[in-house]
Amino acid sequence: MAEEGDEHAIEVHLDRLLEGRGMTLTELAERVGVTHVNLSILKNGRARAIRFTTLTRICEVLDCQPGDLLSHRPR
Fold first, then answer.
1. Cβ–Cβ under 8 Å, residues 25 and 43
2. Is 64 exposed, middle or buried (0-12, 13-18, 19+ CB in 10 A)?
3. What residues form DSSP beta bridges with 12?
């Protein structure tokens, strides 16, 4: 079982998706309805969780699937 401080093995591809759509993190935050800080934490791989409602909105705004945004890297 994973300990509290263990690093996770999920990679976030938000930079790539934003670049591909010519969108800034600030614009995405406004359109999704979350703070720039919260999206920045997600983008930098420091988020410990994401609400499905937030994931849904990100996917709607970026016209992508969750698998486009997140991937698992083997340890």
1. yes
2. middle
3. 70
pTM (whole model) above 0.85: yes
In total, the chain counts a number of residues equal to 75
Alpha helices in 1-75, H assignment, sequence order: 14-21, 25-32, 36-43, 52-62, 66-69
Q: What are phi and psi of 23, to 5 degrees?
A: -120, 145
CATH fold of the domain at 10-72: 434 Repressor (Amino-terminal Domain) (1.10.260)
Q: Read off the pLDDT of residues 1-60 as tens digits, 9 standing for 90 and up.
A: 444 556 789 999 999 999 999 999 999 999 999 999 999 999 999 999 999 999 999 999
